[in-house]
Amino acid sequence: MLLGRLALTFGVVALSACSTSPAPAAPPVTHEIEAVCWAQQAAWNRGDVEGFMRAGYWPSESLTFFSGAEVTRGYETVLARYKRRYQSEGAEMGQLTFSNLETETLGTDHAILRGNWLLDFEERDDAGGLFTLVLRRTPDGWRIVHDHTSVGE
Questions:
Q1: pLDDT tens digits, one per residue of 105-131
Q2: Closest C-alpha among 127, 129, 111 to residue 119
Q3: Which of the four pLDDT bands, split at 50, 70 and 90, describes residue 20?
Q4: 3-class DSSP assignment, residue 9
């Protein structure tokens, strides 16, 4: 009987210890995800729109970019939009700064990255706003599969 009670007590203690043990921490990926923004910022500030796209966006026709009332779909179409807005005759790219980055992982292969963006122009008023990116881990690293960017007032 005493042996049975000891076994039961040991079993309860062992189960309690298991249930209160913290789960193993997932490997940190925040720096990998945020590195996408820093690589894009560096490419933009070199005047390299194609490098900006390669550093961050998923090269797929399923890529989506929402800004204002405009929806742009597909990697090549998003690239053309950036070139039209920032590299066409009379356009200015400005200096890009990302700030206030907040990363939230959604499982092991998806994440949301939120933050602020600012374009510092020489010839016109600066522009900035907020963004929310949905990223997917791919064989080539983390890539933006959806970009929702807003312009502040």
A1: 999 999 999 999 999 999 899 999 999
A2: 127
A3: very low
A4: helix
Give Cα separations from 38 to 21, 55, 149 (angstroms). Answer: 36, 9, 17
pTM of the model: 0.80
CB 115 within 8 A of CB 130: yes
Tokens standing for residue 5:
């009670």
Amino acid at 151: V
With vertex at residue 51, the alpha carbon angle to CA 46 and CA 56, rounded to the nearest 5 degrees, is: 120
- d(CA 122, CA 91) in angstroms, rounded, equals 11
Interatomic CA distance for residues 82 and 19, integer angstroms: 52
Structure tokens at 28: 């940190």
The rounded Cα 133 to chain-centroid distance in angstroms is 5
What are φ and ψ of residue 103, in 5° steps?
-110, 135
130, β-bridge pairs:
116, 150
Q: Which alpha helices (DSSP H) does 21-148 contain, by range? A: 30-45, 49-56, 75-86
